[in-house]
């Protein structure tokens, strides 16, 4: 009869849907988020790493306000100290 196919169809449907739902848990464990960004191209991987480095959360939209200004000020101060050779008469020691 036609209904004899139902158990086999149910088993096949369940087995084909297991990887889809299992990836939700695997990505939650490995990435800390259940959804994965598209990283097929090198540019996408670089942008993912950049967002993770800047804000520790690559899944939120990041603007210029997400880039910390403290690092630039510290680097500029260090550069200015490196170039200070002591021959500037306007600068006090």
TrEMBL record:
<keyword id="KW-0812">Transmembrane</keyword>
<dbReference type="Pfam" id="PF15879">
    <property type="entry name" value="MWFE"/>
</dbReference>
<keyword id="KW-0472">Membrane</keyword>
<keyword id="KW-0999">Mitochondrion inner membrane</keyword>
<comment type="function">
    <text>Accessory subunit of the mitochondrial membrane respiratory chain NADH dehydrogenase (Complex I), that is believed not to be involved in catalysis. Complex I functions in the transfer of electrons from NADH to the respiratory chain. The immediate electron acceptor for the enzyme is believed to be ubiquinone.</text>
</comment>
<feature type="region of interest" description="Disordered">
    <location>
        <begin position="63"/>
        <end position="93"/>
    </location>
</feature>
<feature type="compositionally biased region" description="Acidic residues">
    <location>
        <begin position="84"/>
        <end position="93"/>
    </location>
</feature>
<keyword id="KW-0249">Electron transport</keyword>
<feature type="transmembrane region" description="Helical">
    <location>
        <begin position="6"/>
        <end position="26"/>
    </location>
</feature>
<dbReference type="InterPro" id="IPR017384">
    <property type="entry name" value="NADH_Ub_cplx-1_asu_su-1"/>
</dbReference>
<keyword id="KW-0496">Mitochondrion</keyword>
<keyword id="KW-0813">Transport</keyword>
<protein>
    <recommendedName>
        <fullName>NADH dehydrogenase [ubiquinone] 1 alpha subcomplex subunit 1</fullName>
    </recommendedName>
</protein>
<dbReference type="GO" id="GO:0005743">
    <property type="term" value="C:mitochondrial inner membrane"/>
</dbReference>
<comment type="similarity">
    <text>Belongs to the complex I NDUFA1 subunit family.</text>
</comment>
<keyword id="KW-1133">Transmembrane helix</keyword>
<keyword id="KW-0679">Respiratory chain</keyword>
């Amino acid at each position: 009869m036609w209904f004899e196919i139902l158990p086999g169809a149910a088993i096949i449907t369940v087995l084909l849907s297991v990887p889809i739902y299992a990836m939700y848990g695997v990505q939650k464990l490995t990435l800390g988020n259940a959804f994965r960004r598209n990283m097929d191209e090198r540019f996408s991987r670089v942008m993912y790493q950049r967002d993770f480095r800047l804000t520790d959360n690559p899944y939120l939209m990041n603007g210029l306000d997400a880039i910390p200004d403290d690092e630039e000020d510290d680097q500029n101060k260090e550069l200015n100290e490196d170039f200070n050779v002591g021959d500037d008469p306007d600068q006090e020691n």
